[in-house]
Amino acid sequence: MGMANAYSMINQELQNSVSEKEYLEKTNQEFKGKGRDATNLVVICDDTILVGVNTRVTCGQRKGFILDEKAKKLFTISDNILAVIAGDNNQCTEMLTYVKERMKYPVEIHREPYAGIRLAAIEAWRYCNFVTKFDGRALIVGWEKKDESYHPLTYLVSTSELIEKSTPYEALVNGSGGQYAYFYYEVYKKGNNREEIFELMKRALLFAAIFDENSGGIIRVVELKPLGHYELYHQPVLNVLFYHYNDFATPLSNSLFSLWYNSDYEYTHELNERVHDVFTRKFSGYSHTVVVGANRNFIVRLVHFNCDVGKLYGDLEWYHKHLATQLRPRHLDDLTVHSEVRALPWIVFEEFGASHILFGIPGWKLVEVLCNV
């Protein structure tokens, strides 16, 4: 089996596992202010902990409408205790704010001389079970001081879970994109070198961001030491894809870029719904779409298929040549649009009115252009 087919199969399995769950559909007003899901990835190394997260907040796992591309998903509880979250962003933020405040008084509240990660995890778990219908999960990561030494620990905390993990070099994941990140990490993990793990984490987080509609925005990696933490990496998804494109040519061999001109299309929840519905009906083998970038001119989507896209792209080019003799889209006269983008084939779907949708085959050069369009 080729790698492209393997990626397609694992992607379809993950999609099926998600679609089997039932989610309550909400109106746009109910979505407002609530954030959901993410990709959290944590790896304990010999003398450090690497914490990876993205910054996208969506209004629901099934719908995937983006509320914020630069949301706070990583929280500092103390100098050597961090937390990353998935689920309802507001509830998780309130929970961790409460935990951080409680950790200031270990003696008064817990009769403990030291506010360690175990206390933080217990406080978080109690909060989850105190709040009615708490809808979130946190990975609490840090160092527990014992005698004169520090020991790395992680806790997965939710209403029904308080799970401790401390296995070195094991991928600990959370959020809707966690399955993707875990799959990539396990497939490509070769050794236990800290630098190799750091590079692998960036790619695993990227893999989740380009296949999970609820993951994306900024990819961050933070290093957590016993006496403090600092940020190692902070880049938008398209930039990360540009830097690592050679590693992703195969996973994206069954995908196309789709560009939506901002002057023609306002990014809305309703548009997202319509894109999925129309593409499902129009394109044989269509799987799903993921927004991977939003800049001054375009919303950039990756359109994923469960089949080879060569013939489909040829059909799109033929349709474009036919339309180009009759229509002239506005982006062709916009001098701020890169010439490489203006050269892409575009088509019109009656379901989206008279506006034009651009398509392109993923490639290193096109990704470079999309980072700046």
UniProtKB/TrEMBL annotation:
<dbReference type="GO" id="GO:0005839">
    <property type="term" value="C:proteasome core complex"/>
</dbReference>
<dbReference type="GO" id="GO:0005737">
    <property type="term" value="C:cytoplasm"/>
</dbReference>
<dbReference type="InterPro" id="IPR029055">
    <property type="entry name" value="Ntn_hydrolases_N"/>
</dbReference>
<keyword id="KW-0963">Cytoplasm</keyword>
<keyword id="KW-0378">Hydrolase</keyword>
<keyword id="KW-0645">Protease</keyword>
<dbReference type="GO" id="GO:0008233">
    <property type="term" value="F:peptidase activity"/>
</dbReference>
<dbReference type="GO" id="GO:0051603">
    <property type="term" value="P:proteolysis involved in protein catabolic process"/>
</dbReference>
<dbReference type="Pfam" id="PF00227">
    <property type="entry name" value="Proteasome"/>
</dbReference>
<protein>
    <recommendedName>
        <fullName>Proteasome endopeptidase complex</fullName>
    </recommendedName>
</protein>
<dbReference type="InterPro" id="IPR001353">
    <property type="entry name" value="Proteasome_sua/b"/>
</dbReference>
<dbReference type="InterPro" id="IPR023333">
    <property type="entry name" value="Proteasome_suB-type"/>
</dbReference>
